[in-house]
Amino acid sequence: MNSRRRSWAVPALLLLLAGAFAFSLAVGAVPLGAWSDLRPGGTSWDILFRLRLPRVLLGAAVGALLSAAGCVLQGVLRNPLADPYLLGLSGGAALGSAVGFLLGVAQPAPLAVAGALVSLGLVLLLSRGAGAPSVTLMVLAGAALHAFTSSVLTFILSQARRDQGANILFWLLGSLDSPPYGRLIPLLLLSAAALAGLCWTSPALNLLALGRDTARALGLSVDAALWTMVLLSSLATGLAVTFNGVIPFVGLMVPHMARRLVGSDHRWSVPASAVLGAALVLLSDALGRWALAPQEIPVGVVTALLGAPFFLILLRRERRHLG
Amino acid sequence: MSVLSVHQLSFAYPRWEDDRSFALKDISFDIEAGDLLAVLGPNGAGKSTLLRLLGGTLGPGSGEIRLGNDSLESLSAREVARRVAWVPQDLSTLFSMTVEDVVSLGRFCHGPLWGRRSIADRREVHRALEETDLTGLRHRPVDRLSGGERRRVLLARALAQEPHLLLLDEPTAHLDPRHQAELVAVIERLRRERRLAVIAILHDVNLAYGWCPRALLMDKGECRALGPTARVLSSEQLSTTYGLNASVRPGDSGTAGFIQFHYSKR
Q1: Number of domains observed in the structure of chain A
Q2: CATH number at residue A133
Q3: Would you give the distance in Å from CA A252 to the centre of its chain?
Q4: How many angstroms separate the CA of residue B14 from the nearest CA in chain A?
Q5: Cβ within 8 Å, pair B81-A206
Q6: pLDDT by residue (tens digit) across B25-56?
């Protein structure tokens, strides 16, 4: 049943990504000129390769990172409503990045990843019960930490100079920027590594999704697998947040859509989430650039507008799983 | 050589340590290939703790658990899973999975993390489905199965591990008499054909009396009696362990006996 569904779903997903990629390149405040203008040195060439392509690559990376991390976290935490934000990782990463902005460092990514890791450490420390960390406590601790980092961010915004504050706020809302290639490529390579890692853990995720005791009884070294997954998800979240600030709902809704398409085997649903997440962020960004052109709506606002109704429908559909 | 031998096994949950109460104290027994041991006792007697220790999902405790020639602690999770299969009471899947998906997870301990399922994997999954009469249901999502069918799926997943020892946690709970009988028949066939050793926690003393040759009666983490079921389940033992008057009517030649509790405190 699933393999038959996958035989059309996988090509459809790849086509969707290619379409989103092309659409995202074509849409913008300035219409591209004729094809004849598309040569090195031309205006269209510059718009396409200096402004739009980096932004499109970045958007795809962010969507893929958040969605793959969301899919892994939902399986590990056995919670259909889990996403990178639930563990407070994005909050920590956002705080780290904001501090980087204030200090004026050239590359805030290490600070963001460090922020995510510190949050993770705190969450795991707070959620340690007897023996292994409890999943429920982890989620609650993450929510508390997220509230805390949000308040600190708000405080920083209220104290920052007006221009700095506006920059941070715009980045926090998830506006996709066009970084130079020299800064972009290392980040993209790192993102690819994080994604590969998340996909690599996916067979073990099939066991963990059945509960820790069952996973252990079926032969998985549960603690090692769990730590690897949580660390990789936090790396992915840290990177995504550095790129674009907070883009809500992507890590939550994409895995559910992906699972409907390719089935719940994580060896398929994790990579499928990455592809679908990339497409979703690209389309949301294109929509944000096109709707009120020449003004831009930050991509995070678009995904929130799309995501909130989706989330409510999901809540109703998943009621029986949520008890 | 025994499939499993347990020697003076004790275990205390960490947070209980202050009041020094043991969840399990000085349990010893052996089990051979093809054996069936019933584990009986009131709630909180330590039956599930014992099963989890034997399956390696809890522990280590003090004392020794040996699987064949090896101590359980010296084996990796994967190696344990190739010898011992734990069958929990119920199957809860987070996301929709088919019967075959679930049973295939039993092959995890035999293969590499990645890579296609080998011919042996497919053969074992097929055989496990066949032996539990699930072949016709293999594409059905498990959340659309009845309780009895889900129990068989869990058993099939355990068989796909190709274990020597099966640990059953109340295999017949919540099943009607016909489905209980079917499950018992499946397990009997496995003992005969695969020479599987089976340890089963049971709450139904009559089922143990009629089915299992050997029984371990537990109370407050300790072993009250171990041996042939008819001897372990005497009316005196049952009365002290469960705190209820019990009368045992031994069966005539070839028929099962019958135990009756009198539901008033002694």
Answers
A1: 1
A2: 1.10.3470.10
A3: 9
A4: 7
A5: no
A6: 889 999 999 999 999 998 888 898 899 999 88
